Amino acid sequence: IALCSYASYSEVVRAGLYESPRYSYKTDDGTYAGADIEYAYRIAQKAGFEINITLFSNEASMIKSLDDGSVDMLFDFGKTSDLTSRYAFSETKIGSSALAVYVKKNDQRFTYGDIEQLKDKTFGYERENHVGKAFIVWCKAHGFEPQLKAFADTEAVDKALDQGQIDAAVIGENGHDGYTTILAFSPRAYYIMFRKDGSALKLKVDSAMNSINKKK
Length: 216
Known about the structure:
Layout: E1 2-4, E2 12-18, E3 25-26, E4 32-33, H1 35-47, E5 50-56, H2 59-67, E6 73-77, H3 81-86, E7 87-89, E8 95-103, E9 122-126, H4 130-141, E10 147-151, H5 154-162, E11 168-171, E12 180-195, H6 199-214
Parallel strand pairs: 2-5, 2-6, 9-10, 9-11
Antiparallel strand pairs: 1-5, 3-4, 6-12, 7-12, 8-11, 8-12
Helix pairs in contact: 1-6
């Protein structure tokens, strides 16, 4: 958990972020870094509250923590009909990203963008993560139904891929460090997500995000 305070603010907001080597991670010296971490700190500074950051290894535990009140907001969630019926989202997007299919670096069976090569392969994904459903929808639109195996988190998916239990894996990012991306699909915008009763916090965060974007 990382705590960032720019002043002696009386309000502490607990934010959950998905642990990622590109966007939010812990460095060797124990500090937190990444584009999303920096953006979270900027929001806190503009909104005038302390921010307490927790990193999560899977989407299911993030949503559970929002539901049970362990955190007040979650970064990097795309809007789906299910989520928008249960939660509130920031008015401004954090950014955009495609989903990706990746394989081991030296796997010569695959060529980037070749859909036919995917039809008889087995794919791993993080259980209860939106990317599994999104990949099924994409595959059906391209004439086939994917063979999927669910795992607890991305680390477990990578282990299964390295050991040959699956042929490829699906992730909700543009790519995955240490592996080769063979397909990018279903680009979407990502937002900060709040509980429905978090309207006061959402208002502060929306105002802070608007202020940050005006200075770009």
